[in-house]
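Narrative progress, year one. The postdoctoral researcher (J.K.) led the effort to move from monomer predictions toward full complexes, under supervision of the PI. The following entry was the first complex the group processed end to end, covering 1384 residues in total.
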Amino acid sequence: MLRFESDYGEGAHPRVLELLAASNLEQTPGYGEDHYCEEARELIRKACSAPDADVHFLVGGTQANFVVIEAALKPWQGALCADNGHINVHETGAVEATGHKVLPLPAHDGKISAEQIREACAEHYADDSHEHMVQPGLVYLSSPTEFGTLYAKEELQAISQACRELGLTLFVDGARMGYGLMSEVNDVTLADFAALCDVFTIGGTKVGALFGEAVVIASPALKKDFRYLMKQRGAMLAKGRLLGLQFLALFQDNLYFRIAKRADELAMRLRQAFTEQGWPLLYDSFTNQQFPIIPDDVLQRLSETYSFSFWQKTDATHSAVRFCASWATTEEAVNQLIADLSNNRA
Amino acid sequence: MLRFESDYGEGAHPRVLELLAASNLEQTPGYGEDHYCEEARELIRKACSAPDADVHFLVGGTQANFVVIEAALKPWQGALCADNGHINVHETGAVEATGHKVLPLPAHDGKISAEQIREACAEHYADDSHEHMVQPGLVYLSSPTEFGTLYAKEELQAISQACRELGLTLFVDGARMGYGLMSEVNDVTLADFAALCDVFTIGGTKVGALFGEAVVIASPALKKDFRYLMKQRGAMLAKGRLLGLQFLALFQDNLYFRIAKRADELAMRLRQAFTEQGWPLLYDSFTNQQFPIIPDDVLQRLSETYSFSFWQKTDATHSAVRFCASWATTEEAVNQLIADLSNNRA
Amino acid sequence: MLRFESDYGEGAHPRVLELLAASNLEQTPGYGEDHYCEEARELIRKACSAPDADVHFLVGGTQANFVVIEAALKPWQGALCADNGHINVHETGAVEATGHKVLPLPAHDGKISAEQIREACAEHYADDSHEHMVQPGLVYLSSPTEFGTLYAKEELQAISQACRELGLTLFVDGARMGYGLMSEVNDVTLADFAALCDVFTIGGTKVGALFGEAVVIASPALKKDFRYLMKQRGAMLAKGRLLGLQFLALFQDNLYFRIAKRADELAMRLRQAFTEQGWPLLYDSFTNQQFPIIPDDVLQRLSETYSFSFWQKTDATHSAVRFCASWATTEEAVNQLIADLSNNRA
Amino acid sequence: MLRFESDYGEGAHPRVLELLAASNLEQTPGYGEDHYCEEARELIRKACSAPDADVHFLVGGTQANFVVIEAALKPWQGALCADNGHINVHETGAVEATGHKVLPLPAHDGKISAEQIREACAEHYADDSHEHMVQPGLVYLSSPTEFGTLYAKEELQAISQACRELGLTLFVDGARMGYGLMSEVNDVTLADFAALCDVFTIGGTKVGALFGEAVVIASPALKKDFRYLMKQRGAMLAKGRLLGLQFLALFQDNLYFRIAKRADELAMRLRQAFTEQGWPLLYDSFTNQQFPIIPDDVLQRLSETYSFSFWQKTDATHSAVRFCASWATTEEAVNQLIADLSNNRA
């Protein structure tokens, strides 16, 4: 079985494991105050051209999302996001569990626009009863989105501008950040994220680490005492260096970017192969996740050799599925799949 | 100015004030443990044909809603409700502030159906990732809805049946309960609510009291220790008898029902008058709130003599507005408005 | 039975009821945006010599306490208070229910000192693991305390100074504010509270109103959007004018101060009578609550004619009890009790 | 520098790393639904003689504590625990952040007794105002405590009996469970914990794992839907197998017990050496943590060669410090320290 169903089904890039093993007997301070964390922070600050940013390492994405959002919001504020955004649909109400309503906006290709954000705020304050409604306090985006799509620099600039005018915190969930940065259509850099957002994450779990999300805080208002909240919410790892050294491994020699680029390239080859079969794509993704709509009988045959994720039925005889590439995907597997497709063997 | 803009703009029915004054110098235990509360509870139990129900008196509707919902839900559960339901749009995220997501369903005339509830649960459990989503735990209805519409007995029975099969708590917000019960199209009694729901409220604030909502708990599972939660959430009035004696005044001699019936009848006269003008109704309400769609120039003239609430623009030259009748609405005011309408003086 | 057991067992001062009745048929905007609330706010600002203060009216004390504390604190902060303070022992964990730990300090006569506050903060920040502990964020005092004792101006100034240096919000719970202000030993004015505190309450429930606490916000940082939180937490009364007009009645012609002064004077007469019997006082209170320690057999006889609250056993044959005076206490009752005591008829 | 300052300063036992490396390229389902987790669960159930227990793997101890406590409590309930218990002093109010008050009882050697628990409940319900106070709902113990002390089987049985009579959930935090089980004075087995507690944890972080706590749920009432809460609180690891395979490594061939036993034995040698110097012990610990009280000048000399944790000043010239042994402590280091002590070279 050749596996394409997920980008976080394996362990970690070998370099990560090597560093874990090499440092194993060293005794260091806990809770992220060790030298590995400090070195990793410094590399990330450099990669973001953000020498003043605070960088924290958290274990998981849901955790990073609700800790950041709770830190940013007043009790009566909520988080604007795409209606199919991860915090709205796939985190078991983690944001609400901190007391804050998620305020969904209709998504297009998994994205929302500056105009939607402006309208939501304008409508809120125009209502005589706005004190009876949750006040927008933060904008949550994911880029890449859960559907592989990306915010263009122009879109992000417009959203950033809107947030600053409206007093909203801008937070980008970068669980698949690497695959976005290295996409052939991407025009946003880490430095852009640091300049345009108040806070964003650089995901490790799906891009070569065993686990771990780096939270990069650019906004001075969010920096103070963030570690208290991490501890309170169970998001401060005792042996914090495990996070630091994973990001150290990933950000040395640009490993993070190289493995993401390779995965994107493999995914682009899959995209082309699907297109050549005449199969439409559910989302127009140029990142590591591809969502072809494939006849169900073909899927049946494919599933004997290849694993992939069922996404949704699109009509009586077709389904959208997800194929992922990651650091663990082999060229051989991709070659074989493409060959099978072009030979109608699938 | 003759006022129709709200059903809670005045104080209380004179009988309520009389009882407040008559009892003023009496010293009683606090926190709802006085004899007035006990008598009022007994009258309400009788009115509901529910001798075993627990009855608690809370000051306001938002308070009653979130205390009941918090009492009923596990931390990972949410409340299904109409997307335009009060808890979803007009309580500043009070339910989310207790940690629970509101799970909105598309409303029709302010209502949701047993089928929608069944589908929502079926979809939830059919999803492989249901543990990553908020689990439906309670159904919140309002009857009358915020738009004056009512659940028919058949609809309520179907919802009750669905909730029992699915393990959901059924909670009906009766902020305007009186106006629903006495509506000419209503076929649901207080005894039906007690039999079909786990918990419901009988609103005082909008039906003759200064303030106060009676929470009627039919479900044994919800009864235990409810008063602890009331105290914790600031919902246990120190001089609790103020609530008890208001409900005592309202439920003696059927005052609650008589004033609601009179208000409904006045509203039906308004409804007929609007209809005779050829003005459509935004919602098909047979209760004390009426939502005619009226030409803007007519509204302009009306507003010189009558107060009403703006609801929404319906097209370039028309708006929906709300006219309310209550215990405080005079027949004279209604007569004059109808006369003005029929004489085209409005 | 002559009643001394509580200062909130009766209804309201007659002037309050009169104003309720006189305004009953008036239709006003809801939620505290009516002219009665505005007039009452203005009177309170004047009484506090605080023209820029924000004044909000909430129904109850527990509610006022947790809403204020939640508004002031970051998620990882807690409230320093006396270990026997109301928020720590008698509000069913209302503060914790908003996510914040109460940080108790050992009380002396119900009070804590500037020095204790400074030490608590010094210890917190001296600990290497302070990020693993709740950060002090606010100081909660009550004055009078639950035991009738008062903070002297000098004590309050020292606490205020400490709070400002340490970045702590200072909040005074004035549920019995009137009885403190008018005490013969008091040297703190409402203007002092407004100058020294960030926020404090002026209690109505125990000083002549049916219910109601005025929250006076002096600190600009706490003012913004406070009403959103009130609504979210069920603390915004629909017919908000009911609160406004009660405080209007109480602050017109200094009624609030006059009824408190009279109650304090009656309590001082009781204090003297208890002392003349040779009975010690559990707390050295110069306000409306008195806590004599009385032989149990005397209490037995007293209880046939007089009601009072049992407080605690002090030894095998004595108990401390509470006698309260309020606006509703009659001179006749006090005279008779004193006469009975001096004639050994009790 | 020979290091004794912590039992979680290094990485993991080599067997853990080996299994991580060996499984690295395998693709498995996420979120704890893989075969490694299942095998580890089965081994733990066997070790606990609890075939029906549910076993979940969480990343950290704070996380495990608040998720378990939140799952067990009603909103108005709190957790009884030792005043120096971890949840009360070193988790930044994590329990309060879920809305629940921690109810501290005075600890003796870090422990509380069945009698204290019974008294706390009796006092609660004896108070007329108990609805105004937080209701005890759960008992939190740690064994070993933070001070290395242990609950004897008789103590635990008495507490379990009390909890069952009083309707309290009994939760034991076993962050250092291994060191307790293998202590020469211990008489409690994992099977005892499973039989006497509703839920307990088996700590990995401090006993050979990189990270990870196994939550063992014996009580049927706590089992249902626990994974929803894990997900909501950020406690469901995406690559859940990382937890499963660590516990698999630790529970194969009794590794967990063997490394804990060895650490306890090294600690006992240290204990004896300290005692032979005439140095008292702050706590009477027979587990891997030792707390000798040592002259400050000796500590100064020791600190040139050995690392340890400062605990507290005990008088002007002495301090209590902590020496820990773990799987990573070498016999050579222990031998050298003992030799230095006996030669007065320290």
